[in-house]
């Protein structure tokens, strides 16, 4: 059994911890995976690395964390764009059409397997895109509802403001008349 360190953390160790955790955030990994990686490199436990991150280091890298999250989001978006660019094989393509493009009357087993693999890949990619589209649709609906709620709240506040403004002007008018009467 290897012994784990229990000495104080150095500045270099804090930097390494931050670098690896930020890389994992950027690449879509988990912090636990980052803590395990750092722990192996420094001969510390993943728990010790997690504690150090959460109690001290994370507070110093708030902007770095936000940047890493933004980069992760951009990577996901680019991956989805790449999926959308992949030409999907036409499902209507028949075995006969495949054999005609190959210039022979008989198909080889490898051609059929290749076709089926392409079809399976296209189906998986279409499934991923459909799921992503459904998630985006749900998020859009959530934002639309939020917008409607905020717009309604704004209209109510605007009406209340207008009523208060009228009451204020009436009150000022009343005080002005009272001052004029008192001055006579």
Automatic annotation (TrEMBL):
It holds the Pfam family Myb_DNA-bind_6. Residues 1-61 form the HTH myb-type domain. It comes from the Bacteria. Gene3D superfamilies: Homeodomain-like. Transmembrane segments: none annotated. Residues 119-178 form a coiled coil. Residues 1-57 form the Myb-like domain. Keywords: Coiled coil. PANTHER family: PRESPORE SPECIFIC TRANSCRIPTIONAL ACTIVATOR RSFA, PRESPORE-SPECIFIC TRANSCRIPTIONAL REGULATOR RSFA-RELATED. This is RsfA family transcriptional regulator. It comes from Heyndrickxia acidicola. The lineage of its organism: Bacteria, Bacillati, Bacillota, Bacilli, Bacillales.
